[in-house]
């Protein structure tokens, strides 16, 4: 018997159609524009008849550079203006670093896809030292995140940790001007911008457990745009999507709306999802860790259970202290 007559050479997307035009709302930082251009190129390759255009926007998160974001409204500041463009129809999709997407979206929005992730780890960047372990006591590490700060204090108590804000180029400039001996950044952002050679070493997850969603891109659209959701499916990566859902379930269960020193990182290994998480005080004086393994299909449940375990260990006291 000969096999059924299917053409193996037909592109997987041939049965999916896309609208004639897709407008991408994007922030205007170099990284955000790279990410939007990347999605534009992938959509145009999948749907040659579709015209994809970028709509650049400034968000409150881009404007406020003098205060820690946690104090002025957190992650939502980077997505609100983009969501408004989706609601009023000036844009069809918004491309986000999943790390910057609030843990709960409004009912009118959905994440149409989460694409394969770039390296999820943090990067050590310095003009003077190879790694954190090389840094003498009292030298200065710049980071803007409570998650990185708490882990640094816990593991390298003799280093001075100071605040660092601004987009990637600004942060690197501040390092090069000598304001810091080293800085910690997401490796993914540096790689995307062709700045991978600035990475002196990557910090293993044991040293700096990444943030929920780090390194992954998500595409948001209106929940009622089934045409858009459908045409985004070829960009979805099943494993990344499960990992990010598990990580976000941890953050959702523990962080609520306030900014908490918290890491959550999942990997798919030999078909199973392995999730690690921690919650800490910013000064690293308390750090609670947990890990869990389970079926990829149970991603969110694994995340909720890990959060429960952290609560059982006393996460509540940490959250209460953070106010
Ligand atoms: N918080 C800012 C941010 N949001 C996304 C990235 C880039 C990497 C990624 O996609 O996770 C960065 C930079 C950083 O944390 O150093």
From TrEMBL:
Pfam families the UniProt entry points to: Porphobil_deam, Porphobil_deamC
Organism, scientific name: Parazoarcus communis
Gene behind the chain: hemC
Pathway: Porphyrin-containing compound metabolism; protoporphyrin-IX biosynthesis; coproporphyrinogen-III from 5-aminolevulinate: step 2/4
EC number: 2.5.1.61
S-(dipyrrolylmethanemethyl)cysteine carried by residues: 258
Cofactor section: dipyrromethane
Known catalytic reactions: 4 porphobilinogen + H2O = hydroxymethylbilane + 4 NH4(+)
Domain (Porphobilinogen deaminase N-terminal) ranges: 22-228
GO cellular component, one term: cytoplasm
Other comment: The porphobilinogen subunits are added to the dipyrromethane group.
Biological function: Tetrapolymerization of the monopyrrole PBG into the hydroxymethylbilane pre-uroporphyrinogen in several discrete steps.
Domain Porphobilinogen deaminase C-terminal: from-to ranges: 242-311
GO annotation, biological process: protoporphyrinogen IX biosynthetic process
Keywords noted in UniProt: Porphyrin biosynthesis, Transferase
InterPro entries in alphabetical order: HemC (IPR000860), Porphobilin_deaminase_cofac_BS (IPR022419), Porphobilin_deaminase_N (IPR022417), Porphobilinogen_deaminase_C (IPR022418), Porphobilinogen_deaminase_C_sf (IPR036803)
Keyword Transferase among record annotations: yes
A GO term for molecular function: hydroxymethylbilane synthase activity
Protein name stated in the entry: Porphobilinogen deaminase
Free-text cofactor note: Binds 1 dipyrromethane group covalently.
KW Transferase (keyword) present: yes
Family membership: Belongs to the HMBS family.
């Amino acid at each position: 018997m000969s096999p059924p007559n299917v053409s193996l050479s037909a592109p997987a997307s041939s049965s999916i159609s896309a609208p004639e035009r897709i407008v991408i709302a994007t922030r205007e930082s170099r990284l955000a524009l790279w990410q939007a251009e990347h999605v534009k190129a992938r959509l145009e390759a999948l749907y040659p008849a579709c015209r994809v255009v970028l709509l650049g926007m400034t968000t409150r998160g881009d404007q406020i550079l003098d205060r820690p974001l946690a104090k002025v409204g957190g992650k939502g500041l980077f997505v609100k203006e983009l969501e408004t463009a989706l609601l009023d129809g000036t844009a069809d999709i918004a491309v986000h670093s999943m790390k910057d997407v609030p843990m709960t979206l409004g009912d009118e929005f959905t994440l149409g896809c989460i694409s394969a992730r770039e390296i999820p780890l943090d990067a050590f960047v310095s003009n003077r030292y190879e790694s954190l372990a090389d840094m003498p006591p009292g030298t200065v590490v710049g980071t803007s995140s409570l998650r990185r700060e708490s882990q640094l204090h816990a593991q390298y108590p003799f280093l001075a940790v100071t605040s660092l804000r601004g987009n990637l180029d600004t942060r690197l400039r501040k390092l090069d001007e000598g304001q810091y001996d080293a800085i910690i950044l997401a490796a993914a952002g540096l790689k995307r911008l062709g700045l991978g050679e600035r990475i002196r070493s990557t910090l293993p997850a044991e040293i700096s457990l990444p943030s929920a969603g780090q390194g992954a891109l998500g595409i948001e659209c209106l929940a009622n745009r089934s045409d858009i959701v459908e045409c985004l499916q070829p960009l979805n990566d099943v494993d990344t999507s499960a990992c990010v859902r598990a990580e976000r379930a941890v953050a959702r269960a523990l962080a609520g709306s306030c900014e908490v020193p918290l890491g959550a990182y999942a990997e798919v290994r030999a078909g199973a999802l392995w999730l690690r998480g921690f919650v800490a005080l910013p000064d690293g004086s308390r750090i609670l860790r947990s890990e869990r393994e389970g079926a990829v299909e149970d991603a969110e449940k694994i995340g909720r259970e890990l959060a429960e375990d952290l609560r059982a260990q006393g996460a509540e006291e940490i959250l209460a202290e953070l106010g």
